[in-house]
Structure formats: structure tokens, C-alpha cells
Amino acid sequence: VNCSHGGNGESGALSGVMEYTEIPFVSPSVLPSAVSMDKEITKIALKGMGIKTLPYVATENLYDLEKKTARLGYPMIVKPACSGSSIGIAKANDKEELIRAVLDALKYGKRAVIEKCLQDFAEINCAAYKNGKGAIIVSECERPFGKGEVLTFGDKYEKGTREFPANIPEPVAVKIKETTAKVYAALKFKGVIRIDYMVK
């Protein structure tokens, strides 16, 4: 069973059911699933490992929104804290768009994460799993492409294109692979995972 993608399947809830009922599955267990599903908690964990993440704030409402986000500056990216696949994600170029984006993100959960919008970057994916001997195996890097400024669900899973292996400098690819293995080991992952990077 693969219970890794979306909602309670990705949050660790379904993994907990599988573990409790002793049903084999190839997805991460409860703890790494929960940590990596919650974007705010992911940032806290990665920061503890010395891995760079974008500046952000998290919010549960619109209270003091401009004050909270002042240090980020426009444009910003707003996303649900506990969703995936680009669902509920939006770019905000001004106060009106920020308010609208936060309200939309909060339709998908109790918190929204607001990040500084990175300009001129490449999104790069790298997958990993642990083999029967306990060695962490990482994939080649992959680069997805979309038509807009922000990758959508459709770009990722329906009509987007991909470059595999990604046409990026070898030292960058090596760093991504090393980081993927580091995160996999530190968060005690098992099964198959994919980490998405924004490379400036």
C-alpha cells in the first residue's frame, strides 16, 4: 500500500493506521510524515539541520497581517500550512492580493504560511528510498515546468513537462542529492519520498 499523497494520507494519520493494523506500506511512518506535511514544522526541522529555507511567517487569521509580513516585502507566496500539490497556493503582489490569498489558504486548514517570493529560481525534485541493506538511494534530479509563475497541480500531475535528469550544474545536483540523503536520515524516513527544492 502507498499512503503517501495528500490529506491524511500524507500527514501520517493513515501511516499510523497501517502500523497499528500491521499492514505493509511503502510510505513514511507517522513522525516524518507529520513533520514534512506541516510546512511550518518542516522549516523548523530543516533550520535545525542547517538547511536553508525561505523567510516566512505563519498565521491563523488576518490580524496584524501587514505588520507580521512587513519584513518579507512584496511579492509573497501564500500557501496552506498543511496541504500539498500546489493546492491553495497563490502569489500576492499587494495588500489586497495578500488578504485574498490568506483567506483562500485558510479554506484548506487552520494556518497559512507566507513566504518571501523567490525570483528567478528553478524548482528541482529529488527522490529517495532505503534499500534492503539500509543504504539510502537517491534519484537523479528532475525539473518540472509550468506555464505560470507558480507551478499548479495541473503542471505537476496532469499537463506539465519534466526534464530528467535536470539540466543543472553537477555541483548543484550533488548538493541536492546530499541534502536529500541528509534529510531522509535525520527525519528517520522509510519508504519512497520526494523532496522539492527551489534553487537560486
Give the key terms.
single chain, 200 residues, alpha+beta, 4-stranded antiparallel beta sheet
Largest sheet: 4 strands, antiparallel
Mean pLDDT: 86
What topology, given as strand order, has the largest sheet? 1-4-2-3
Give the SSE order as H and E letters.
HHHHEHEEHEEEEHEHE
How far apart lie the N and C ends? 36 Å
Total E-strand runs: 9
Instruction: Give the structural class.
Output: alpha+beta
Give a verbal description of the structure.
The protein is globular. It starts with 6 loop residues before the first helix and ends with a strand. With 200 residues, the chain is an alpha+beta fold. The strands form three sheets. Strands 1-4-2-3 form a four-stranded antiparallel beta sheet. A three-stranded antiparallel beta sheet has the order 6-5-9. It has a two-stranded antiparallel ribbon with strand order 7-8. The longest helix has 17 residues. The protein is 35% helix and 21% strand. It has eight helices and nine strands.
Topology:
Elements: H1 7-11, H2 13-21, H3 30-37, H4 39-48, E1 56-59, H5 65-69, E2 76-80, E3 90-92, H6 95-105, E4 112-116, E5 122-130, E6 136-138, E7 143-145, H7 153-157, E8 161-163, H8 170-186, E9 193-199
Antiparallel strand pairs: 1-4, 2-3, 2-4, 5-6, 5-9, 7-8
Précis, in short:
With 200 residues, this protein is an alpha+beta fold.
